[in-house]
Amino acid sequence: MKKKIIVPVLSLVAAASLALTACGQNDSQAPGASGSATQATSESQSAEPLTVSDTWVKVADTGMSAAFGTIRNTGDNDVTIISASAPVATMVELHETVMGADGTMKMQAKQGGFVIPAKGELKLEPGANHIMLMGLTKPVQAGDQVTFELKTSDGGTVTFTAQGKDFSGANENYAPGGDGASASPAPTK
Fold first, then answer.
1. Confidence band, pLDDT 50/70/90 cuts, at residue 171
2. What whole-number distance in Å separates Cα of residue 84 and Cα of residue 130?
3. For residue 48, is it left (φ>0), alpha (ψ between -120 and 50) or beta?
4. Half-sphere exposure of 87 (CA within 13 A, CB side)
5. How far apart are CA 67 and CA 89, in angstroms?
6. CA-based, 20 to 30 A from 177: which of 5, 116, 130, 185?
7. Contacts of 64 (CB under 8 A, 6+ apart)
8. Domain boundaries, the chain
9. Considering only CA atoms, which of 178, 174, 147, 169 is closest in space to residue 160?
10. What CA–CA distance (Å, rounded) separates 171 from 37?
11. Which pLDDT value is given to residue 152?
């Protein structure tokens, strides 16, 4: 009697499905922007169940800018993003926006990073959580494609690309050190 081998085939199909999910693409339109859709790709360097979509980065000639989008966790466990990097800036931080003691909104580094809940998502938006680019090494212009790499607490990485978009809102103050005590004006464009 000849036995059929089903388990290895199913394992191969499952592995291929996971690989395709990690390298998926998604088109989106930035809030308040006009023109063609932003194309974002997330690609996992480990078994991270994260995808990044609806990405865009605020145009800026010098100084600071910020990146936005949606990070989804398709896994069964929470994932913590602890840092980010991009070749267009000397420093990249994970930021949150909070109410300062003086009643104004202030940006500050997010202590502990961004936690993406199991089967959940985190929206990066102007005036809320975002990826802050400081010390731009070159201008970010409308249509530019900027590559980002996110690092997770378990050593994984996720890479995505965001398109430069014009946006003039969410002009919070930046509070270095996260205490909200000293602030300087946020960049405008």
1. low
2. 11
3. beta
4. 7
5. 12
6. 116
7. 132, 133, 134, 135, 136, 174, 186, 187
8. 37-177
9. 147
10. 24
11. 96
37-177: CATH architecture:
Sandwich (2.60)
pLDDT score for 176: 54
Q: What confidence tier does 50 reach under pLDDT thresholds 50, 70, 90?
A: very high
In DSSP notation, 10-58 reads HHHHHHHHHHHHHT-EEEE--TT--SSPEEEE-EESSS--EEEEEEEEE
Give the C-alpha separation, 162 to 76, whole Å: 27
Under the banding of pLDDT at 50, 70 and 90, the label for residue 125 is very high
What would the two tokens of residue 91 be? 């420093």
**Tens of pLDDT, residues 62-107:** 999 999 999 999 999 999 999 999 999 999 999 999 998 999 989 9
Residue linked to tokens 């996992």? 44
